[in-house]
Amino acid sequence: MNxxxxxxLKRRLxxxxxxVLVPHKNPDGDAIGACLGLFHLLRQQGHEVIPVSPNDxxxxxxxxxxxxxxxxxxxxxxxxxxxxxxxxxxxxxDFNSLDRxxxxxxxxxxxxxxxxxxxxxxxxxxxxxxxxxxxxxSSTCEMxxxxxxxxxxxxxxxxxxxxxxxxxxxxxxxxFKYAATTPTTMRVAAELMERGAPHTQIxxxxxxxxxxxxxxxxxxxxxxxxxxxxxxxxxxxLTQEELNRHDFRKGDTEGFVNYGLSLKDxxxxxxxxxxxxxxxxxxxxxxxxxxxxxxxxxxxxxxxGHINAAGGRSTxxxxxxxxxxxxxxxxxxxxLAG
Length: 338
Ligand code: 5GP
Ligand code: MN
Fold this sequence. Notes:
Layout: H1 3-12, E1 18-23, H2 29-44, E2 48-53, E3 71-72, H3 77-85, E4 89-93, H4 105-109, E5 114-119, E6 130-133, H5 140-150, H6 159-172, H7 183-194, H8 199-207, H9 212-223, E7 226-228, E8 233-238, H10 240-245, H11 257-261, E9 268-275, E10 280-287, H12 293-300, E11 304-305, E12 309-314, H13 318-328, H14 333-337
The structure holds guanosine-5'-monophosphate (5GP) and manganese (II) ion (MN).
Manganese (II) ion (MN) is lined by residues 30, 94, 120, 139-140, 172.
């Protein structure tokens, strides 16, 4: 991170500031962990801090210390707008383009204070006065750890901060297995354990608190799996009717896409999930090796992300979206066939 930016921020943070922390829409463990890790740090420093999420987040993240402090923009728009109007600093965490904040984007565009971006996605936007962007990082939570160290505040990392940051590293690295997991990532995780992150409990709270309906929805998703052997591709579909039948709750489909990638020889996996309320098909893409799903999501599905994990959307029907997905695979035949 740029040392001039750190100096500027340190100076700003010497006086009490009003600070809003914002994760991306449909926040995951990394986005919520980064917000709450910083929330505890900045509160310790005496600032007035409030996290504002564009929309609600899954129940399996609600055990996190501080999660009850979130204001939800979609539920309480007036109050969220007021908080942003009065803020001195807005941290945008785990996203790098304001349109990733959903319906909150226009309010953020109007914010005339200082934006601080901490993020590990590719192609960062230019809206922030202070940008800490590094696509090689495992997670935004790992970056928040480095950011806290750069501020010289490492001693403030208590069990709450450690638990929040550990969670984001854990979820964004697929439990420390993805390629972006470096020796430094492991050292950071170890330090967070030493500082009190209850790692066994965190793994349980994140991965082992399923409702039976969720497991049955996974069964349905796996029944729908389609394998396109020549393209080393597998995809899953879930219609709104299938979601309703299994009492779908936010976050229930998290991780389903990875089952496609767990097949031997599959290098590209996708899931298409119908969302009637929003009138879209939400798409998640995952890959193994050099095949860039970020490029595919940007080129065909109004999305983006990382080389091996990206997402996007389609406004066509689920059937037409899948047809279009199948029809673009020949363009990538050389890279996919291996
Ligand atoms: P997921 O498939 O788990 O929703 O997201 C995987 C990755 O792609 C995440 O890093 C997420 O931020 C990014 N991503 C998901 N959906 C979108 C989208 O609609 N637009 C962009 N730019 N990135 C997305
Ligand atoms: Mn992330």
